[in-house]
């Protein structure tokens, strides 16, 4: 009798996971009831976000010891009591790390027959591809001539970001972790340049590759590479935070603002400098004068008299000891 | 003879500036030539960004030992050889820390006569006010019912952000550094709540004040307060980075992503989660299939055979040893 081979989490890893943290388990192939189908797994997708599930800190949920690992798969329906799925249908769903699985059809997609091999529905025509497509086009707003930097440049998401960037007319600079990956990015995937962060001094290499700054950064890694690229943004840059490869294996949170918070909340974080907003001056003065008239605005000034006292007043301000707008009455 | 009293930087401070870092200097009142006017300073604005100028790291330029401190002032024209400025005109410009100054009229604004006292043109009706107005309305996009958190809540910018937020129908939570400031924010400036970060445990106090998360955060401080608030953003939150009070006195850069980079570049940083973008699925598949047909997209799969090898393959992926989209061929 054929069995269903499954991979379960044996132990929650600390740091980088090793094969010993996983266990092979065999059990009977499940029976199906009305409204269900049985499928065999053709292809299983492995993705970095799974490290976050194992750590119990991914938005899609957690995997504990004894649980089957989760994962999206391309499956072929081999038995069915579901009216919408026929034997032979090729579908994708979160079937997990196992040879056979059943489903009630919820959150199952049939694979477009034009997608061949069907494994592409896990890659450039699946979630990594959609991530790159929607992330770059909708959040990155690429324009012809923009300088686009993408990390994990040969991964499922990164390689699509770079290639879509080229289609949109960007100059594309990849960051990857080996000379072989960088070679592929430039020779096969149309990147203009690809920097090897394990060999090159990344700040220097980025300056050379992007002398006029970076207009779009599509980040799949977080950590030090994110910090380095953020030093080189051009005016009005767009940064898409999409992955945390550098953090997935970390048990302790890195110091500083955690990009995971921005990803989790799909936040928009923007830099504000008033010099860009002087065109609002007239509206601003009219509105505030009206609000003052209506009693909707109050204010407090922290006034010292005499230019000689400016230094002392400034020092109080820098210790947070002022109260209200700090002003020196000079004459 | 009356002299022009000026305040110059005596010494570049390390850490929090002290009065000893500044020096009083007296010299003759300047003569004016054709196309210039002479003015006496009525009010001088002191602002935290000046700390960055002294450190040589502000976008508006640097102040070195021996230089007059820079600063925006309200001035009265007392002598003129400039056709557009008459004696008695009240103007604002970057006159610096001194009693008298001359100007060729470039980047000088005449003060709207409805602004009384004219010192308000340095505060709620000046740059801090415009910063709050444009930053909150254009970048924060406040909607009625939004939870708005603002740090340095009683400062020139923060107090206006909170009050404009109330006008726009937000629930406004301030963060300030003393009980007295918090009392003023709530009792005078219409804030719903104000948290004293020196007394309250800020993470707990924020949870209590914003049980459903934070929709808009207007940050004037950076540092630890920024990190704490970022943990509590709600879905689709907007964060406006506008000041770095917590960092201005630091000589060494804090670890982690430096918010100064986002401010300097006026960048937009966004979190990307593919689950929000499934409405693009159809466009995505059509575009990518066309691009594949046109030879514009290539791909690389890192395929291992057999579900038993999933764990090993995943461990390679987490070490960055994969090359291309990682897939397990199961059947």
Q: What does this protein structure show overall?
A:
- The structure is a homodimer of 331-residue chains.
- Chain A has 331 residues and is an alpha/beta fold.
- The first copy, chain A, has helices at residues 49-55, 127-140, 156-167, 179-187, 202-209, 223-230, 245-248, 259-265, 281-293, 310-318, and strands at 3-9, 22-28, 37-45, 73-80, 90-93, 100-103, 109-110, 147-151, 171-176, 193-196, 214-219, 233-241, 268-271, 301-305, 325-329.
- The first copy, chain A, folds into three domains: 3-122, Medium-chain alcohol dehydrogenases, catalytic domain (Quinone Oxidoreductase, Chain A, domain 1); 127-270, NAD(P)-binding Rossmann-like Domain (Rossmann fold, 3-Layer(aba) Sandwich), CATH 3.40.50; 275-329, no CATH class.
- A five-stranded antiparallel β-sheet of chain A has the order 6-3-4-5-7, with no helix packed on it. In chain A, strands 10-9-8-11-12 form a five-stranded parallel β-sheet, sandwiched between helices. The first copy, chain A, has a two-stranded antiparallel ribbon with strand order 1-2.
- The longest helix of chain A is centred in the middle third of the chain and has 14 residues, at 127-140.
- Chains A, B: It holds the Pfam family ADH_N_2.
Give the neighbour order of strands across the main sheet of chain A.
6-3-4-5-7
Which range does the strand content of chain A fall in? 25-35%
Rg over C-alpha atoms of chain A, rounded to the nearest angstrom? 27 Å
Major protein interface: A-B, 143 and 143 residues
Number of strands of chain A: 15
CATH homologous superfamily of the largest domain in chain A, by name? Answer: NAD(P)-binding Rossmann-like Domain
The CATH class assignment of the largest domain in chain A is Alpha Beta
GO molecular function (chains A, B): oxidoreductase activity, acting on the CH-CH group of donors, NAD or NADP as acceptor
Domain Enoyl reductase (ER) (chains A, B): 37-328
Protein name (chains A, B): Domain containing protein
Keywords (chains A, B): Oxidoreductase
């Amino acid at each position: 009798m054929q069995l269903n081979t499954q991979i379960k989490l044996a132990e929650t890893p600390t740091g980088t996971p090793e094969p010993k943290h996983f266990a092979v388990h065999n059990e009977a192939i499940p029976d199906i009831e009305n409204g269900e189908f049985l499928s065999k797994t053709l292809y299983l997708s492995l993705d970095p976000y799974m490290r976050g599930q194992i750590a119990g800190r991914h938005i899609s949920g957690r995997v504990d010891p004894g649980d089957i690992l989760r994962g999206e798969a391309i499956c072929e329906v081999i038995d069915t009591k579901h009216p919408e799925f026929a034997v032979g249908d090729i579908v994708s769903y979160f079937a997990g790390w196992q040879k056979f699985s059943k489903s009630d059809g919820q959150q199952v997609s049939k694979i477009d027959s034009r997608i061949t091999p069907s494994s592409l529905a896990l890659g450039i025509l699946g979630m990594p591809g959609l991530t790159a497509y929607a992330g770059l086009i909708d959040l990155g707003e690429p324009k012809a001539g923009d300088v686009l930097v993408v990390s994990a440049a040969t991964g499922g998401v990164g390689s699509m970001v770079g290639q879509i960037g080229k289609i949109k007319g960007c100059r594309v600079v990849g960051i990857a972790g080996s000379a072989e990956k960088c070679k592929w990015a430039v020779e096969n995937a149309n990147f203009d340049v690809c920097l090897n962060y394990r060999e090159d001094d990344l700040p220097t290499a980025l300056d050379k590759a992007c002398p006029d700054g970076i207009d779009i950064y599509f980040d799949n890694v977080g950590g030090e590479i994110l910090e380095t690229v953020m030093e080189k943004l051009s005016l009005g840059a767009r940064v898409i935070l999409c992955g945390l490869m550098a953090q997935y294996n970390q048990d302790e949170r890195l110091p500083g603002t955690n990009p995971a918070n921005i990803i989790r909340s799909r936040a928009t974080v923007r830099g504000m400098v008033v010099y860009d907003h002087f065109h609002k001056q007239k509206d601003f003065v009219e509105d505030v004068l009206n609000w003052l008239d209506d009693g909707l605005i109050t204010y407090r000034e922290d006034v010292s008299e005499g230019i000689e006292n400016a230094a002392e007043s400034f020092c109080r301000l820098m210790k947070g000891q002022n109260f209200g707008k700090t002003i020196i009455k000079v004459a």
